[in-house]
From TrEMBL:
Its cofactor is Zn(2+). CDD domains: CAD1. This is Enoyl reductase (ER) domain-containing protein. It comes from Salix viminalis (Common osier). GO terms for molecular function: oxidoreductase activity, acting on the CH-OH group of donors, NAD or NADP as acceptor; zinc ion binding. InterPro entries: ADH-like_C, ADH-like_N, ADH_Zn_CS, CAD-like, ER, GroES-like_sf, NAD(P)-bd_dom_sf. GO terms for biological process: lignin biosynthetic process.
Length: 934
């Protein structure tokens, strides 16, 4: 191997550790292959991703890390098999530089969704096994497939941001058909991505509203970018005026922010696209489900759509607004970007500012490369001399215990390569133009710090070590140019003159090392101990200066009367009522723009509070649904909520495609219906559950194809990227990211449960262009369609029929998932007893005591209070059983009834039972306290 083959031929700026500070770096690019293009980089855009991975925000950064994936340049060499490009062509490279080129996505030129994963332009693993390094460099070598032709005449500096910021918004806008003139678009955030979304939106003929937290951006948005509306999101009146007015929203904000307020701005079936990278996505399920809204993610785009976008921009004269900077300014630019202090994209002028002179290794040193602390020879470049700086040749450097501590990373914050040494003595060899205190030849020293703010009271008092913003330490600190400071185990150093100390004439330089003598008390404490010891005791010594709601909305019954204008139903028809009983009946949507009137707890047309199906009868508008002839009413009831809640989104997201794969989270009332519909649609159905006890039922009874315990990591791993759809029916709180990883590219996750919050990492949505959608029941058309489908395909929910007297226990059991799979109240049978009972209280007719006592048994826990009415009812029971006996209600205590449940004879032969336990006293009265054995 010759030295030529491994020469460091590429100049760059790189981050060496999670500080994210970039400094000059040299490395070698891979050898040009037959299908490769080598391009001289002229410009590179600065993206939020550069900041994220430089600082290891996702925990997967590989150092040294050269960022940059918005690359524009000029072809300087091509491989022997390259046919699409020639030397001199203007080309671009975006977020990825390779992929498998074999899978269905790659063949469709949607390489970002490559089944094996695209190789990202930086921080990926290249085809030769090396770590991919990005566009903050002098040149790059990539396969020709991943080069984009920049149209003739289009400025290279303007083209660079299009290769991430541009395509990141253009791709989902095209995928979700936002190029429909007259539609309305909201853009959250007006940064690099946001301003491009506005430009594309206007080019597509959309009505664009910018949603921002900063009033300072209003003029720019309206006058410069041409937005139609500008809304300050903290202004509740402005936000209220936008309610349900937008067809689409693109969220470009990467800072953490609430999602629910924005979801409320979407029309029914509106689409919310997330392209930013907040730390989490969290919203209330109602924001998604009510209105059948969709939240989708996207990250850049494939080669086909990227080239299409470049051509579209050139044809329509769309240019991003940029601020061109030299590479030496990149650390400050990254900090400004995080503060949104840029309009609207930084672009580094690589060609002009990155040259061999700027990265020459002119300083000799010894450095530690890792926590072993072993020092070895090292070369690096010092920062350029500033007008207030002093450059000194180091003659001597003291060895301090701190050198050991940081060389071996004892405090966990060492930045390698690390050049120790902060007891420095030497001779001035050069001074900046404004330096007045030192001249060439002076003997000077540098101690433990080399910079500070020079503005706070401590700095003004020349107590810089106590600088309120923190002193910059001589080694392992962050210097003013963003590089890692390197200490005195080196040939020379450059520092601001303030932090140089004049060594008196004649004083030996070797004796002048500056560390221990410079230690100061922060109000009279100096800790010189190197052994382990507590710090808190010392630190503490320092200064510092009700409405009752009647529920039920899965209602099935028989028409007993119709209004004079009703034409769709007649007396005797079997009908159902679902989750709502009225709406405006004027708007175009399934989910009424004015709001449907819910079956219970809503405000009815007459102003009364709607009351639901735990009742004997109900009155509704005829618009609602017919139950097919022969379909059991008990089975029809759950379809009107549980059934339609899963059927509606399944149809909306085209899950009725035989051969596709469906995952169902939760196997309750909704979940088991999702399985049944899935099988009827010809899907391969996998049940995802936390309970192994449901496996046999899922596979053998419901016919699922697969059953996975979600806590089993191996089972979950085997499902990775295997599902086309997931329906989440679980209402308990649970993580979402593990399930999102099971979806294929462009997979759809539908939430129909109601956990307390929805929270997932943006990467779960963005990588793979996955979609999260919500749904809650459905319109009358799709509900009737579902009922007919169930009847035609003999789909029946699994139910447990109960009397209404059991409903409280049933509700408790339902919360505990102790039902297969839906309770249905037999309203007709069990309410007849109640009606009969109430009539009996005021009547004087005879009745069968066995029936009444069985009814009393059903009351169960309801008979525990001691109201006068309940005592009267019990007294009437007893008087009817023994009509010749005088009953004194006040003598009866209903708490006694609770004991009676223990005796089977009580509800099998109640009359005989009352005689056997001798409850009749000597005066011929029933005395429930007579038998002490009870």
């Amino acid at each position: 191997m010759s030295s030529e083959s491994v020469k460091d031929d590429c100049l760059a700026w790189a981050a060496r550790d999670p500080s994210g500070v970039l400094s000059p770096y040299k490395f070698n690019r891979r050898v040009l292959g037959k299908d490769d293009v080598s391009l001289k980089i002229t410009h590179c855009g600065v993206c939020y991703a550069d900041y994220v991975w430089s600082k290891n925000k996702h925990g997967d950064s590989r150092y040294p890390l050269v960022p940059g994936h918005e690359i524009a340049g000029i072809v300087k060499e091509v491989g022997s098999s390259v046919s699409n490009f020639k030397v001199g062509d203007h080309v671009g490279v975006g977020t990825y530089g390779n992929s498998c080129r074999e899978c269905v996505h790659c063949n469709d030129r949607n390489e970002i969704s490559c089944e094996k994963g695209p190789i990202f332009t930086f921080n990926g693993i290249g085809s030769d096994g090396s770590i991919a390094k990005g566009g903050y460099s002098s040149h790059i070598v990539v396969h020709e497939t991943y080069c984009f032709r920049i149209p003739d005449g289009y400025p290279l500096a303007s083209a660079a941001p299009l290769l991430c910021a541009g395509i990141t918004v253009y791709n989902p806008m095209m995928r979700h058909k936002m190029n429909q003139p007259g539609k309305s678009l909201g853009v959250i955030g007006l940064g690099g991505l946001g301003h491009m979304a506005v430009k594309f939106g206007k080019a597509f003929g959309l009505k664009v509203t910018v949603l921002s937290t900063s009033i300072s951006k209003e003029e720019e948005a309206l006058c410069a970018l041409g937005a139609d509306n500008f809304v300050i999101t903290s202004d509740q009146e402005q936000m209220k005026a936008l309610h349900k007015s937008l067809d689409f929203i693109i969220d470009t904000a990467s800072g953490d922010h609430p999602f629910d307020p924005y979801m409320s701005l979407l029309k029914t079936a509106g689409v919310f696209v997330l392209v930013g990278l907040p730390s989490e996505v969290k919203f209330h399920p109602a924001s998604l489900n009510i209105g059948m809204k969709t939240i989708s993610g996207s990250v850049t785009g494939g080669t086909r759509v990227t080239q299409e976008m470049l051509d579209f921009c050139a044809a329509n004269k769309i240019y991003p607004k940029i601020e061109v900077i030299p590479i030496q300014y990149v650390n400050e630019a990254l900090e400004r970007m995080i503060k949104n202090d840029v309009k609207y994209r930084f672009v580094i002028d690589i060609e002009s500012s990155l040259n061999s002179e700027s990265v020459k290794d002119d300083c000799l040193a010894w450095a530690a490369r890792d926590p072993s602390g072993v020092l070895s020879p090292y070369k690096f470049s010092r920062r350029a001399l500033g007008k207030d700086d002093v450059s000194l040749k180091i003659t001597h450097c003291g060895v301090c215990y701190a050198d050991v501590i940081w060389s071996k990373n004892k405090h966990g914050d060492s930045r390698y390569p690390l050049v120790p040494g902060h007891e420095i003595a030497g001779i001035v060899k050069e001074v900046g133009s404004c330096v007045s205190n030192f001249k060439v030849g002076d003997h000077v020293g540098v101690g433990t710090y080399v910079n500070s703010c020079r503005e706070c009271e401590h700095c003004n008092d020349r107590d810089e070590i106590s600088c309120e913003k923190g002193a910059i330490f001589t080694f392992n600190g962050i210097d003013t140019d963003g590089s890692i400071t390197k200490g005195g185990y080196s040939s020379h150093i450059v520092v601001h003159e303030t932090y140089c100390f004049r060594i008196p004439d004649g004083y030996p330089l070797a004796s002048a090392a500056l560390c221990s003598a410079l230690h100061k008390s922060l109000d009279f404490i100096i800790d010189t101990a190197s052994g382990d010891h507590p710090f808190d005791p010392y630190m503490s010594l320092l200064k510092t200066a009700g409405v009752f709601v009647l529920v039920g909305h899965e209602i099935a019954g028989i028409v007993k009367e119709v209004g004079s204008c009703v034409s769709n139903f007649k007396v005797g028809d079997h009908v159902g009522v679902g989750t709502y009983v009225n709406s405006c009946r004027e708007c175009e949507h399934l989910q009424c723009e004015k709001g449907a009137i819910f079956t219970f707890n809503g405000i009815d047309t007459d102003g009364s509070i709607t009351k639901g199906g735990y009742s004997s009868h109900i009155v509704v508008h005829e618009t609602y649904v017919r139950i097919p002839d022969g379909y059991p009413l008990a089975s029809a009831a759950p379809l009107l909520c549980a059934g339609i809640t899963v059927y509606n989104p399944m149809m909306r997201h085209k899950m009725n495609q035989p051969g596709k794969s469906l995952g169902v989270i939760g196997l309750g009332g909704l979940g088991h219906m999702a399985v049944k519909f899935g099988k009827a649609f010809g899907l391969k159905v996998t049940v995802l559950s936390t309970s192994i006890s449901k496996k046999e039922e899922a596979l053998c009874v419901l016919g699922a194809d697969n059953f996975v315990i979600t806590s089993d990591q191996e089972q979950m791993k085997a499902l990775h990227k295997s599902l086309d759809f997931i329906i989440d029916t679980a209402s308990g709180d649970h993580p979402f990211d593990p399930y999102m990883s099971l979806l294929k590219t462009a997979g759809v996750f539908v939430l129909v449960g109601f956990p307390s919050e929805v929270k997932f990492h943006p990467a779960s949505l963005i990588f793979g262009m996955k979609t999260v959608s919500g749904s809650v029941t459905g319109g009358t058309r799709v509900t009737q369609e579902m009922l007919d489908f169930c009847a035609a395909n003999k789909i029946y929910p699994k139910i447990e029929v109960i009397p209404i007297q059991y409903v409280n226990e049933a509700l408790e059991r339902m919360i505990k998932n102790d039902v297969k799979y839906r309770f249905v109240i037999d309203i007709e049978s069990s309410l007849k007893l109640l009606d009969f009972m109430i009539n009996t209280v005021s009547g004087n007719h005879r009745f069968d005591p066995d029936i009444l006592l069985v009814f009393l048994f059903f009351l169960g826990s309801q008979v525990k209070s001691e109201t006068a009415l309940q005592k009267l009812i019990l007294a009437i029971f007893c008087s009817r059983i023994h009509p010749k006996i005088e009953v004194t209600p006040i003598q009866n205590d209903l708490s006694m009834v609770n004991h009676l449940w223990k005796f089977p004879m009580f509800y099998h032969q109640p009359s005989l039972f009352l005689h056997q336990i001798d409850l009749v006293n000597k005066n011929g009265q029933i005395d429930l306290f007579r038998n002490d054995n009870l």
